[in-house]
Design goal:
434 Repressor (Amino-terminal Domain)
Amino acid sequence: MEASTKPTNTNIGRKIGRIRELRGIKQETLASELGVSQQSVSRMEQSDFLEDDVLEKIAKVLGVTADAIKNFSEEAVFNYFNNFHDNSSGDFRHHCTFNTLDKIVELYDEKVALLERLLQSEREKNELLKK
């Protein structure tokens, strides 16, 4: 493949896997939301490239943008959190730019919403099986 046509989302599977882990989402949950098997998610996470439409679906489930996945950098994540402590006088709390309690509530609400979607999906599957 020529350099000019080389996909920009190389090593995308590892990025997806790491974001999924950081978000606290299991492969099984991601698979259920995508309507695929856990093995399919595992294969995706081992892929160097995914089609843009697949990447968009995954991004939506993970609660990020496709660009965020493409540009994800483990180093950037660590730098972000390390900078809370850098240039401080030993007390990094004054560098925090968000209310941690609000963030916990936000993450909890996201988990609840995800579980509600999974439960609704299971209910719909059960209704289809009954018919």
